[in-house]
Amino acid sequence: MATDDSFLKAVVKDTASAFERALDQHPSRLRVREIGIVTYVTKGIARVSGLPSVRAEELILFPGELLGLAFNLDPDEVGVVLLGQGEHVEAGVEVRRTHRLLDVPVGEALLGRVVDALGRPLDGAGPLRGTRRRHIEQPAPTIMDREPVRVPLQTGIKAVDALIPIGRGQRELILGDRQTGKTALAIDTIINQKSYGLICVYCAIAQRSSAVTKVVADLREHDALGYTSVVVTTGDDPPGLQYIAPYAATSIAEYFMHQGRDVLIVYDDLSRHARAYRELSLLLRRPPGREAYPGDIFYIHSHLLERATNLRDDRDGGSLTALPIVQTEAQNISAYIPTNLISITDGQVYLSPQLQQKGLLPAIDVGRSVSRVGGRAQLPAYQKVASDLRLTYSQFEELEAFSRFGTRLDEETSRTLERGRRVREALKQPQYRPMLPAEQTAVLLAVTQGIFDNLDVEDVGEAERRVGRALMDGLPEVVARIHAGDDLPDEAREQLLDSARQAIAGLQEE
Ligand SMILES: Nc1ncnc2c1ncn2[C@@H]1O[C@H](COP(=O)(O)OP(=O)(O)O)[C@@H](O)[C@H]1O
Ligand SMILES: [Mg+2]
């Protein structure tokens, strides 16, 4: 026995050293390569056996250069999300590990470009040059890296900047039924960043291609594409690409944030993102939870939105503001995905189909909208108008509902109603017409102080333009004060009101 043992040992030793010699001679030829075999494939996912040591989220290479993401790591099988159309994939084909995690190109070259969720150009404008790569999954900045929101993000929209102010680094949800103006609000906000030097990323998730084409055309027409990167997945894309799109877009945005830039990202929309994730999860046979969404959808969205932040100056100093959009069905904001997102974000802008139908655009329901941190960042000049505005408007809405019953109104009530109608008119704003903070405050101050009371409601729009022009031409020092974030002294306030009175004087006579 003892002799057998030593014989075996000698054989093993010999073989081992033979292997070592072989490895030395052919260092690149001999490598352990795990080959997997597809056991099952359907639209969007595949199951693969024979990859025992694959890591979660590792990229898997399929025939035809198709990539997949290892999603479910079961003991004898891996569930893989396909990142493309799987026309070459069928049961029995071989796949390989790549030992890589998914990354996308990032850098200045992405500005002005339209790319897919893997960062491949879709605009026919040639390859992206001088890019780096960044993993699409990133840890959120720690508490120590973050600083409170202090600088406003001006949307250029009066109702938002005055009443639901957003700060740089904040996450503000835009929610509403379809066709209520959610995309329009986000695009106007991007267009307004031209005056403020922010970088923007617009991420289209599972949208119609015609809608995406319109967004890109709008951005180009309003000179906003040059500082914007557009990441697109359409409804025809496989759910895997729809699912990763917001992560890829966020990585593209983070690159700029770490360059110290202020960045705005729009996710349009996360309802569709949740649906893509639900589809993948059901295909991968993960247990469904509420509304058939997988149990970790809350975590998925909160982790994504945690990546938005205001970085401390000594940690690169940039900021990432997120405007996730969520679409409600029949105004049900207590459905699963909207409630999740409401609780994850720092506030919401609610768009109402009733207001949209009445032509009160943007259809922002001020009473149901809130910004939980933006007030701290709002330019001080707004504080002179915001509280009056909110009060006048909410009193008006209450009285208006009441006065429909045809009761006789006392003088004070009718005055409140008349002023309220003008306030509501002054909160209207067409698309693609962002306003400067000084113009906004001048108009809102004038209307809440009753300067428009004697105008016809239809003339409020014209009055607004005149007040804005008079301010910009006549009171440059007040404009400068407001934009510099200085307080508005009473004297300047009186100047604003005088200028407004004079500006509309002609209008009353006409
Ligand atoms: N402030 C506005 N003024 C005029 N039209 C608007 C305004 N906001 C939105 N719209 C119009 O309302 C329609 C729906 O807007 P959209 O942003 O596509 O809605 P959603 O993204 O909520 O489905 C579009 O035709 C858009 O042009
Ligand atoms: Mg839309």
Please tag this protein with its features.
510 residues, 6-stranded antiparallel beta barrel, alpha/beta, Lysin, Elongation Factor Tu (Ef-tu), domain 3, 3 domains, 9-stranded mixed sheet, binds magnesium ion, 15 helices, single chain, Rossmann fold, binds adenosine-5'-diphosphate
* Overall number of structural domains: 3
CATH topology of the largest domain: Rossmann fold
Tell me the radius of gyration. Answer: 29 Å
DSSP strand (E) fraction?
15-25%
The CATH superfamily name of the largest domain is: P-loop containing nucleotide triphosphate hydrolases
The number of helical elements comes to 15
CATH class of the largest domain: Alpha Beta
- Gap between N and C termini, in Å? 119 Å
Q: Name the helicity range.
A: 40-55%
- C-alpha geometry: elongated
Q: How many beta-strand runs?
A: 19
Mean residue pLDDT? 93
